[in-house]
Design brief:
The structure is a homodimer. The radius of gyration of chain A is 26 Å and the shape is elongated. In chain A, strands 3-4-5-6 form a 4-stranded mixed sheet. In chain A, strands 1-2 form a two-stranded antiparallel sheet. Chain A has a two-stranded antiparallel sheet with strand order 7-8. Chain A folds into 2 domains: about 70 residues, Arc Repressor Mutant, subunit A, CATH 1.10.10.10; about 130 residues, CBS-domain (Roll). The relative contact order of chain A is 0.13. Chain A is an alpha+beta fold. The two termini of chain A are about 20 Å apart. The mean pLDDT of chain A is about 90. In chain A, helix 1 crosses helix 3 and helix 2 packs across helix 3. At the A-B interface, helix 3, helix 4, helix 6, helix 7 and helix 9 of A face helix 3, helix 4, helix 6, helix 7 and helix 9 of B. Chains A, B: InterPro entries: CBS_dom (IPR000644), CBS_dom_sf (IPR046342), Diverse_CBS-Domain (IPR051257), HTH_11 (IPR013196), UCP026546_HTH-CBS (IPR016842), WH-like_DNA-bd_sf (IPR036388), WH_DNA-bd_sf (IPR036390). Chains A, B: It comes from Sporomusa silvacetica DSM 10669. Chains A, B: This is Transcriptional repressor CcpN. Chains A, B: Keywords: CBS domain.
Chain lengths: ~210, ~210
């Protein structure tokens, strides 16, 4: 829709890209036309975002296009805008009770916390299933045996962009990220669990974008 | 970026919206300016997608804006562009072997097929975990006991838009949809499994869009 369709617009964009900042008068001289003849083409190029006008300096190239607009739109959305409520169990919970908590809350991942809401580990359905088919007594098994412990957990924050969090989900091959705040504890840094960011949140966001709601 | 910033552009858009199709000359007359004075504003409005020009008819209103462009961009992507390879087991597989197949292929959902690749059911990690913590003998249990059978399965097709498929994932609260082709079998219609569409595919697509790759 916002493609540059005319040859003159492409020529102008190329001149601004290679010679910017450059004035409208200088561009006109290069193309052997009047400044007035370029007025609407320059307006379109500025409006499309591909070039920008800086007063008393001239036109310069930004390289932005529709794709960039899409990227900018996406990068504006923060984790806090789409995150879910975290579901947590304490470190002394059994594997069985952790799985029951998963089912009761209909979530695929629970966060294991200690000292209030300080992140200690994470348990996914995959972790739970791996132990459950091993024929173990789940009621006797402490959650610490099957959880992924803190140093290995990938986290996000409410201020991080949804895009960056989604990238973490894909690159780390996990279904869920704890949304955390960094807190100071004696001699260390700890994470306080404040939310949950999953592929479901990203999929829902994608649907809302497709419906024009984001 | 493509916001209409000038009052005159807003006035023109309003005239086209209420009186379109309308010629540039008629718009100029309404605003008491020359046709030439409107040239760049009309060009910007057409370029932004908010109005369109139809030869020998005039300008008419589309109501499109950046948000619409985003929506259009999203609706162009098909399931076939982002789907994964399906992981299947046959109807005579045990629950235990089905779960092993899940782990070996690192997927959260397997499709149960009969007569080649005709869809009969679907098993998620959640289904498997529910049975596994019940203390049942998984090696003796047939997959038919824990699978969701065909009439209840939500499917998608390669030609469906990724947006519509994502909407199905959210509204049906499932992690995965079988991508199917419709085939005729004697006395009935059946689905042939040709792919797998998950929240991971949608999340990856979102990341690619954010990177300007889609």
């Amino acid at each position: 829709m916002i493609a540059l369709t005319t040859l003159r617009q492409k020529k102008i964009a190329e001149i601004v890209r290679t010679s910017g900042p450059i004035t409208g008068k200088q561009i006109a001289a290069r193309l052997f036309v009047t400044r007035e003849a370029l007025r609407s083409d320059l307006a379109i190029l500025v409006m499309s975002g591909l070039i920008e006008a800086r007063p008393k300096v001239g036109y310069y190239y930004t390289g932005k296009n529709v794709r960039t607009l899409l990227t900018e739109q996406i990068s504006k959305i923060k984790v806090r805008d789409i995150q879910s409520v975290p579901v947590v169990v304490t470190t002394n919970t059994s594997a069985y009770d952790t799985i029951v908590t998963m089912f009761l809350n209909n979530v695929g991942t629970v966060f294991v916390v200690e000292s209030g809401s300080i992140l200690a580990g994470i348990v996914s359905r995959k972790d739970a299933l791996k132990v459950a088919i091993g024929g173990n007594d789940m009621k006797e098994m402490p959650i610490k045996v099957l959880m992924t412990p803190l140093p290995k957990i990938i986290v996000t924050t409410p201020e991080e962009s949804a895009f960056k969090a989604a990238k973490k989900l894909i690159e780390s091959e996990v279904d869920s990220l704890p949304v955390v705040g960094v807190v100071s504890v004696p001699g260390n840094t700890a994470y306080e669990v404040v939310g949950r960011l999953t592929k479901t949140n990203i999929t829902r966001l994608f649907v809302e974008m497709g419906e024009g709601k984001q």
